[in-house]
Amino acid sequence: MFITELPGQPVFWCIFCSRCNLCRYLGPISLYGFAFDLAFGTCFASLSAQQNRRRLRNVSAFGESARGNGCQRWFLKGWIARRQHRFNRAVLGFRGRMKMKLQFACRWIMGLVVIPCTVGNVQGGPPRYVGHADAVYAVAFAPDGNMLATGSYDQTVRLWDADSGGQLACLEGHVDQIFRVAFSPDGKRVASSSADGTLRIWDTKTFKSSHVLKNGGGPLLAAAYSPHGDVLASAGFNGTIHLWDPRKGQRIESAAHAQPIYSLAFSPDRESFATGDTHGIIRFWKVATAKPEESVTTDSGVLYQLRYSSDGRWLAAAGSKGILSLWNVRRRELIGRVKAEQSALFTVAVSADELKLATGGRDRTVRLWSVPALQAVGALPGASETVLSVAFSPDSKLIVAGCYDGTIHEWQLPDR
Questions:
Q1: Does pLDDT of 16 surpass 90?
Q2: Fewest beta carbons within 10 Å, which of 94, 283, 300, 413?
Q3: Complete DSSP assignment for 28-73
Q4: Tens-place pLDDT, residues 305-329
Q5: Handedness of CA 327, 332, 335, 336 (dihedral sign)
Q6: Cα dihedral: 47, 51, 52, 56 (round 10)
Q7: What is the SS3 assignment for 20?
Q8: How many helices (H) and strands (E) does the chain have?
Q9: Confidence at residue 59, expressed as pLDDT on a 0 to 100 scale
Q10: CB-based burial label for 252 (10 Å; 0-12, 13-18, 19+)
Q11: Which secondary-structure segment (H or E) carries 302?
Q12: If pLDDT is split at 50, 70 and 90, which confidence band does 99 have?
């Protein structure tokens, strides 16, 4: 079970999907009893962080039972919705109820509006790489482009043949949802970070776990290999950054951060890496000492993903306020920004030629942007749910996206 915890605000446990940490946080409609997330129609139990563990376990078990068959789930939703309605009438009053209805109407309309736009002769179709049973938070191509790795809320990492779309292996071992997967530069290993607080390293030939690295508390939200593969970095909800030797499975350095870290990326120069936190701050760190250098403050909200250019000159950031921004790394200056979505922007990817960025979010569309102008050059419709992760193939001919409903979509881009 994952906790969404912001300073001065309560802790919310989603008792249906347990994964709303990746949803855009709009704040509760009510701070009493239950709060209703209108984006997905799920209910949250509002609990303080100090309340006893027994109550939290009960809420978690209630959530697991709600993830059963469709009839059971909808019955449970209806049961709670009816009681939420009675509660709203008693506590919120007329103005509070009108506010809730207005938010629901706005977000329902935004969910329907998708601008029909294509990029040349884009070839897309039904979901590919079929196998995951729940939300796909992470997708990553191997450096040679022959393999795809995906991580899911169903607690599995899956490896796929990128040519045929067939599943090569289902890697099991995590006991909670998986947020990131990352290939080593030589493609021989893939790392996965999970809400269970562990970082696992898998062999892509034997499909066995070679190391299980423990964070020391809290979900691990980010993981990345250094360009030469000699360092593996992880960071998460407790704000702690760990640098590991992936071959020996030993910790090299650690650093503390005041806020939860959602994203992490290595600079191609191997000397530094960047992190993105819940306050929209991009902080740059020295690899050798794990000490912070400088930071820049964005207006993007929670920074869900960071991506460097191959030469390390600029850094792209995607945030919870739907803003895509581009930063000059050497000068620590903003190159450009664009409101990429009306709702949360969960993911960003850089093409190999660095002429395009791909983004995904709540509007169920992968959008393409020019670099550095950040002008919209098209969109790839077809995803059936919120896009949580996106990746270019190494030759930039394919784009793969992982979605909230467990599907993985693929589009073939035209040659330029």
A1: no
A2: 94
A3: -S-SSSEEEETTTTEEEEEE-TTS-HHHHHHHHHHHHHHTS-HHHH
A4: 999 999 999 999 999 999 999 999 9
A5: positive
A6: 10
A7: helix
A8: 3, 31
A9: 32
A10: middle
A11: none
A12: low
Position with higher pLDDT, 28 vs 374:
374
Strand 408-412 with 178-183, pairing: unpaired
| Long-range contacts from 192-195, C-beta under 8 angstroms, 24+ separation | 192/138, 192/151, 192/157, 192/223, 193/220, 193/221, 193/222, 193/223, 193/234, 193/236, 194/151, 194/155, 194/219, 194/220, 195/2, 195/219, 195/220
Identify residue 93 by its one-letter amino acid code.
G
pLDDT tens digits, 106-120: 444 444 333 333 344
Q: For residue 101, count other CB atoms closer than 10 A to its CB.
A: 11
Residue bearing tokens 């043949």: 161
φ, ψ for residue 330 (rounded to 5)? -70, -45
Residue 251 — left, alpha, or beta (φ > 0 → left; ψ -120 to 50 → alpha)? beta
Sheet holding 178-183, edge to edge: 178-183, 189-194, 198-203, 209-214
The partner residues of 282 in beta bridges, in order of sequence, read: 276, 296
Residue 103: exposed, middle, or buried by beta-carbon count in 10 A (0-12, 13-18, 19+)? middle
pTM summary value: 0.72
**Around 13, how many Cα atoms within 13 Å sit in the side-chain half-sphere?**
20
Secondary structure element (H or E) that encloses residue 238, with its range: none
CA–CA separation, 34 and 49 (whole Å): 15
Tokens read off for 191: 């790392």
* pLDDT of amino acid 127: 76
Q: How far apart are CA 401 and CA 392, in angstroms?
A: 9
What's the average model confidence in pLDDT over 344-373? Answer: 95
The count of other CB atoms within 10 Å of the CB of residue 415 is 8
Dump pLDDT digits (tens) for 383-414: 889 999 999 999 999 999 999 999 999 999 87
CA distance 320 to 4: 14
